[in-house]
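Input set for joint prediction.
Command: fold jointly, output tokens.
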Amino acid sequence: MKTDHTRLRVALAALVALALALGIAACGGSSDSSGEEGQGSGAIVSNPENGKVSLTIGSKNFPEQEILGEIYAQALKAAGYKVKSALNLGSETVALKAVKTNQISGYPEYASTALTSFFGLEPEEVPSDATEAWEKANEEFEKEGLTAFEPTPFASANAVGTTTATAKKYGLKTISDLEGVSEKLSLYGSPECRERIDCLAGLEKLYGLKFKSFTPVDISLRYNVLEKGQADLSILFTTDPQLAAESNKFVILEDDKHVFPAGNVIFVTKKSTAEKAGPDYEKTILQVQEGLNLKVMQELDARVELEKQTPKEAAAAYLKSAGYTS
Amino acid sequence: MIPFHPVFASFSGAIEFIFTPQASNVTGGKTVGGFSQSMELLLTQLEVTAIAVAIALVIALPLGLYLGHRGIGELLAIGLGNAGRAIPELAVIALVASLIGVGLLTVAPALAILGIPPILTNAYVGVREVDRSAVDAARGMGMGELEIIRRVELPLAIPTVMSGIRGATIAIVATATIAPLAGVTTLGDYIINENVYGQNGVLAGAILVALLAVTLEGLLALLQWRLTSDGLKLQTA
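tokens >
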């Protein structure tokens, strides 16, 4: 039993390392024509000019955000900036306010979240195209003296997840399949999920579903409650490494009515901050996020959530193996 | 004229939030807050507080009184009591939630851990401070040990014991705001979900928790006054 478990972990770790290497090699090739070996090709060049600029990189307080925050912070440090980080902001409202009041220089935000949470769009109004969503969000940000850099390759969305056993028992493939059975099922999600239109409120309104109960939990417990059998359904993220690593255990239901808009990550900062920091600020951020496709992001999430590395270690490993830092 | 800090400006907004449902950015038109939701959250906060205080009392009060009466276990009563105050409650709740599960039945015991140190320490100290001659007199009158605790030591120690219970209650009711992270929707829901409820909601939650804490403190102070024997009141007055 125990050896099985250990073997699984070792296999998983190997898989993660392999996929990370592959994913990064693949994107390294496309981003830079000359560099095949990675070393030095896309490396970040330290500019002594930047030493005069202090930046504080923020992020919200869950692993994917912390990893992104670390990647940006470490990359900017490599570019010569003085960098501090504040990777524990509780919500996008707090994060945005921190940007506006210069407590942080900028932070990564999902374009979909920006559009629904900051600019009042209904989930179905969020463009599915990454560039279109970014442009739409940026237009609004510009009005407030802010700017958002181009989006990452990967997108993340919330999703209704369950165990394969539950899915089989009730024949669930899409969220619409919950019709008629949701009254028997309990749903767990983050505390704010209850009232959000891109969460429980949307499931009730757009799908017309009623659940047996909704229980708020910290998002770090989203798989725990399924494993413990407390939750029949739980709100998960599409970038969750558990979905790939334990695909025989967990599944997500297809969002056939688009309550959960997918969002690519855009880096939000103040225009004045961007000007003061010089061209390397935007350049560095865009450079290091080029390699962040869904696969790579999932593997980075896996390092932190399954392998228990710190976001700092995962980010450093990513930057190094992609040849951005040495 | 000194410009008002935004906090004061939104104070009236927060009061309004408590009584009248408000619009929210992220709910797709559904209103949030208002009197019925506020009361529902407040009652849940009260419920989880009451259960947690009860658990702490059942565990710590008899133990503290017994140890104080026997004059033993000072290290336990004082040392553990002090160390217990240093436990980060958020970590305890996170641990309990991931080990056992979420919901009222795990959050309440986790919160009770906060209440045990002050009740234990104060019960112990309160009993130790009781005049030994009173205890000897009671023993001389033929009282049993249990009777001495119940009829002599506890009544004389009431002010100290009660102040421990008051401290425990305040700590628990204030900390119950983090319960929404583990499946119990208390007033903390307003406070941790600024995305949904806005700044007014956050402040409304804080105001309600503060009012609840002050009210509980007042009621317990009243109870303490009623429980304290008249002789002691004269002495302290």
